[in-house]
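thread: overnight batch results

M.L. [08:02]
morning all. the overnight job finished for the chain we discussed friday. pasting input first so we're all looking at the same thing
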Amino acid sequence: MIIWLNGAPGAGTSTAARELLHLLPGSTLFDPELVGAGLRALLPADRLAGVADVRELPSWRRLVVDTAAALLSEVPGPLVTPMTLVDQEHRDEIFGGLAARRIPVQHFLLHPGETFLRSRVERRAAVEGDAVRRRCLGGLPRYRAALPWLTADAHVLDTSRLTPRRTAELLADRVRRGDGACRIVQDAPPAAQTLAAGVLFFDERDRVLLVDPTYKPGWEFPGGVVEPGEAPARAAVREVAEELGLRLEHDPALLVVDWEPPRPPRFGGLRLLFDGGRLADDRLRDILLPVTELRGWCFAAEDGAEHLLSPGRFARLRWALRARAQGRALPLEAGVPVGA
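M.L. [08:03]
and the structure it wrote out:
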């Protein structure tokens, strides 16, 4: 298990984590900052120059998951992990990766009032220097912007007037109660190429329906992996029923077949998109999302979808829209029509 202590820079997550170790038998400190330090030592300067923070690197997020899994094979756990995490897509990628390895996460937000936080930062800066002040206070705007999703996702603990020891005691009590559990349903990572089927639904303005997964970054089409022996169109129907609560009376028409090449650590495979047709307003009221997989849905025009989807998914959508207009399915390779 992972006990993730989140909070603004300077909120005292590391201090609380060290105190918490004394209260949870078998617990071990796992500081992802060490993963970042390793990457900074190993990566060439020109790669590091391309990011403002090492946490922006996909390799950092993968290594956090892999390192946690490796540690839990050596120690009984839980791992106490103090780390500011204010990018929701990074949260989805890390927590989803842990869920895929069957590692549960309890997410806590240590949230002192800003006046108390600034006072703590100033006391630290008086000892450690101005760099602490710049780092902690410089991170406040992003933290404030993230508070709506953070407070919805994590168990919030107001630490304004708490000592680190008292914070740890309250955390230990809430850990034992199961507070902050992130209930993410996720399949194990694929070990080979996969076949996946998605469905495009449209509104009266021909905008496409997209869903926001809790277990990976970015938006996605409703759908999922085709199970062994399952027909792709039937898999699409099944996934739509599971993810949206919508029943399709007939197998949907195929729009595109896209071969996604392997790009380590991803294995790639075939990606199919089907036409689910238009959804009338009365059917929209029937949409019911599984909270352990999806947090929301929206309709997006093609130009809006470009900002929500990964480049590969957007290329697939772009050609699927053209295939729909032409009334014929298109074969793609890496998002490009075959023979183009």
